């Protein structure tokens, strides 16, 4: 191959590798045992000549790495993730390296995990499973693992992009929940669904016409409004300076005592120490977490909380999605290395599959 492309991890499927090989690339895959590669590890991988890198969200892609990649002749970097808080896009631009991410293919998979965590928290599935396995079940009881009925309750979505909108739709349509969402931008994608999917009827009118309790929806004017009113709240913002510790001691205090909070975005969106304290003080408050402030660690006390469900950052982990992410990441790098016109704007991320999302500010 004429071009040297590195993947810092083995990735699912073979399509991504074949795409690169068929187009003059020599693909090198790092098989180091350690899970999180350091900046030094990656500099060693890049070496003297490297045209493009596919990297992971666990890696710190800042000035040092983009400088090294640029010196090696590299033109492209793709995160195998939709989130790119681990990538300093300005540094990449400074060194002439284009950056890509992998939106679109993980929308439904991620929303489905958020829905799973919402249901698991509402119905106390994990606690109940532990109870069974511990041999504690000695007969049906009216009070055993009583949880929340979602139907008729309000789901709150903070960040109504692709994933937040897909999740909202699942919860509204699937479980007949009322919706309140907060986003800096009006979500046309979400409002189209709630206002007019059923011919000329809104989903609420459609339910009413079928003799069901209609659902309601609104865009909140503040995040606090969502925190105050919703029974289940799912977080779907990007992580940046403005969303760091978006959920903190004060925002937790505003939420209902029996609310459910779900996070499949990025850990630092929640002040995890404040959350542990809140879980201790409010045993009826439940949380479903896919992401953590200092991955792979959890803040002290979190793992002992019965009212917390914790899973290891697996929201995008379906076979179809992970192969799709690998393929998109490879296309991102290939497109730039081969000079395809899609890369004409080096600042543009969110390149594929979603022309409607605004470029990052
Ligand atoms: C996963 O967390 C992603 O951003 O794709
Ligand atoms: C954000 O990137 C989203 O897909 O919602």
Automatic annotation (TrEMBL):
Coiled coil: none annotated. Pathway: Photosynthesis; photorespiration; 3-phospho-D-glycerate from glycine: step 3/4. Its EC number is 1.1.1.29. Gene3D superfamilies: NAD(P)-binding Rossmann-like Domain. It comes from Escallonia rubra. Signal peptide: none annotated. Transmembrane segments: none annotated. It is found in: Peroxisome. GO terms for molecular function: glyoxylate reductase (NADPH) activity; hydroxypyruvate reductase (NADH) activity; NAD binding. This is glycerate dehydrogenase.
């Amino acid at each position: 191959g004429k071009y040297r492309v590195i993947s810092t991890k083995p990735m699912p499927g073979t399509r991504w590798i074949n795409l690169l090989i068929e187009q003059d690339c020599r693909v090198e895959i790092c098989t180091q045992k350690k899970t999180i590669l350091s900046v030094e590890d990656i500099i060693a991988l890049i070496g003297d000549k490297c045209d493009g890198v596919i990297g992971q969200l666990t890696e710190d892609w800042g000035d040092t790495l983009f400088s090294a990649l640029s010196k090696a002749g590299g033109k492209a970097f793709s995160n195998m993730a939709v989130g790119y808080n681990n990538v300093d896009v300005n540094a990449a631009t400074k060194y002439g390296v284009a950056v890509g991410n992998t939106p679109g293919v993980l929308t439904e998979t991620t929303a489905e995990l958020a829905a799973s965590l919402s249901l698991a928290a509402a119905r106390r599935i994990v606690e109940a499973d532990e109870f069974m396995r511990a041999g504690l079940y000695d007969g049906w009881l009216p009070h055993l693992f009583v949880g929340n009925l979602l139907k008729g309750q309000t789901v709150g979505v903070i960040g109504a992009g692709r994933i937040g909108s897909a999740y909202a739709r699942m919860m509204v349509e699937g479980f007949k929940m009322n919706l309140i969402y907060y986003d800096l931008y009006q979500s046309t994608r979400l409002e189209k669904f709630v206002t007019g999917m059923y011919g000329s009827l809104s989903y609420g009118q459609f339910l009413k016409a079928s003799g069901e309790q209609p659902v309601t929806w609104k865009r909140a004017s503040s995040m606090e409004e969502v925190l105050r009113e919703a029974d289940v709240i799912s977080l779907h913002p990007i992580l940046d300076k403005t969303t760091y510790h978006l959920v903190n001691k004060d925002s937790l205090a505003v939420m209902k005592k029996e609310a459910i909070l779900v996070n499949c975005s990025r850990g630092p969106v929640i002040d995890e120490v404040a959350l542990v304290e809140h879980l201790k003080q409010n045993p009826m408050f439940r949380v479903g977490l896919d992401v953590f402030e200092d991955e792979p660690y959890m803040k002290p006390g979190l793992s002992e909380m019965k009212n917390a469900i914790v899973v290891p950052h697996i929201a995008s982990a379906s076979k179809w999605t992970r192969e799709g992410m690998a393929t998109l990441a490879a296309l991102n790098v290939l497109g730039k290395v081969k000079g395809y016109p899609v890369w004409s704007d080096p600042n543009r991320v969110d390149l594929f599959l979603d022309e409607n999302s605004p470029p990052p500010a």
